[in-house]
Every structure is written in C-alpha cells, then in structure tokens.
Amino acid sequence: MSIKGQQQHAMITGAGAGIGRQLALAYVQQGATVILIDKQEEALHETAELVRQSGVDPLWRTVDLSDANAIIGCFNWIEESVGKLDILINNAGFGITKPIFDLTIEEWDSVIHTNLRGTFLCAREAAKLMKKGGSGVIVNMASTRALMSEPNTEAYSASKGGILALTHALALSLGPDRIRVNAISPGWIETGNYSALKKSDHEQHPSQRVGKPEDIVRACFYLTDPDNDFVTGMNLVVDGGMTRKMIYEE
Asked: Model-level pTM greater than 0.90?
C-alpha cells in the first residue's frame, strides 16, 4: 500500500531500531521524506546511514520523549527545517517488568511520561503543523498489552491502554481539521533473530507464525494511505490472532 506522493513528510519516533527502523526504510522506499527521532543517538545514526544508502538524506534528531520541553523544541526544529508534516508515527516506547511492590514512582513515571505523555505531546505538536497544511495522519503504537496482560507489567500496560483511549479522543478532536488518528496494537513482533524461534513459538499463533516488523509496516501503510480517509479512531490489532485465542490448562 503506497503512501502516494513524493512530497509526504513522515516523522517516526523510536526510529533507532526494530519496528521504527523498518518503518523508516519502508517509507523512504515509498517516496517519503522521513524525520527520524530516537533517544539513542548511536542507534539513530545507524538508521540514518541505512536510509542514506538508499539515496535519501533523512532529517534526524535525538529526543528524550519523557522531556516535554525537548518534544516542543523538536517540533519547532521541524517547522523551521521543512515547514510541514503529513504523517506522524508515534512508535517509541518501553516497559519495565517489575513486581508492583518494588516498582518505584520514578520508574512508573518514566514509562508513563515516555509512552503516554510523549505520544500525546507529539500528537498535539504534530497536529499544529498538520492543521496549517490542511490535513494529516497520526498513528499511535499501542500494544495487545492494552487488552491483555502478564504479571508485573502494570506501567507498560497502563500506558498502552491510555494510548488507545487517547487515540479515539484525538480522532474526535482533530477530525474537523482533517487529521485522522488511529492506533496499531502489535502482538509478538520479533525484531531479533527470527530464525532462532522455536516451532512452538509459531504454532501457538492462529496465523501459524510469529510477527515481523514488516507486518506493522504494512498496517501503517494502510492507515496512512490517503485513500483510506474514512478510517479514523480505530485500533488495528496485528497479533496473528492471539487475542482471539482461548487458552485453558489441561
């Protein structure tokens, strides 16, 4: 699914590795000008170099999304550098797996501020540029952890659940400005050594395989395609069917 058009400017957070890196490379192949954001400078530099190898010089900037002022400064830089933004993919995020009795308030805040508050602030600042341009698309990366959980993941699950609620609220608020807002909830997306996965890893999925970053890329292409302008406020679950699978102990 093409994003259609050489003049599309797409900002991707968490672009230093994994899904974010694949998104950066894929959108460049579709003719977009990419703006790459990540907290890890070395990883972000590696992604930028990979993009350059395709013949495109990306814009990139290290930003700590838990820092509200850094986010606002980043969007000021984007406005000064390119003056527009068509697509925002809020991909950055992390989790802390820790018993609730040991999880500190600082750790809780770091997850919520990065994943949830960071997503809100990026969406708000992006919407200012999109409104000036007449339209735009925002994709927020949630997780199936917003719908189901494992123990000791409270901060991460809460942040992703908040992203789902934030998504449909933003879709209503920004609709009159022709800005669409949707979420993607990935399941198990293997960003490491796919060939090292066990047969049982794949077979537990109704789809009979573990997910790949390319699966999320295709979902983003669908949601950011200009022809799909009737799609807003939705959560697209990309998990190989796992959240529809009933599991009982034998």
From this structure: yes
